[in-house]
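Can't paste images in this forum, so I'm doing it all in text. The chain is below; anyone willing to post the predicted structure tokens underneath?
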Amino acid sequence: MSSEADDFGSNTKSLHFLLVPMMAQGHMIPMVDLARFLAARGTLVTFATTPVNLARIQTTIDGAAASTLPIRFVELHFPTMEAGLPDGCENADLIPSADLFVQFMNALSLLRRPLEAYLKDLDLTQ
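Text version of the structure:
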């Protein structure tokens, strides 16, 4: 092994993963499990989702917080109004009508702005 490989852990910054799950219930809890797995191996993990989705997995979040693993949970504004969706329609299973699926997908693409704003303000030294 080269000395570079031997020194990998001591000469590099800690890894920081950003997880942004698809706004569908079947994606949320497995992504929290992935966050726990990564954090248990010494990496900082930021889990970004919307207020409604965070509320729906609050018990799972509480368990992750109790574990004292380095996981941040970040709320991003989901642009329901901008996309023509009813308030609170932040998850695929909350779409009240199949006619609104295109608007939901458009809202997902609009989530880019709040995510970019969060990343610009992110202090990577923490």
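Residues 1-11 have pLDDT under 50 and may be disordered. The first strand starts at residue 16 and ends at 19.
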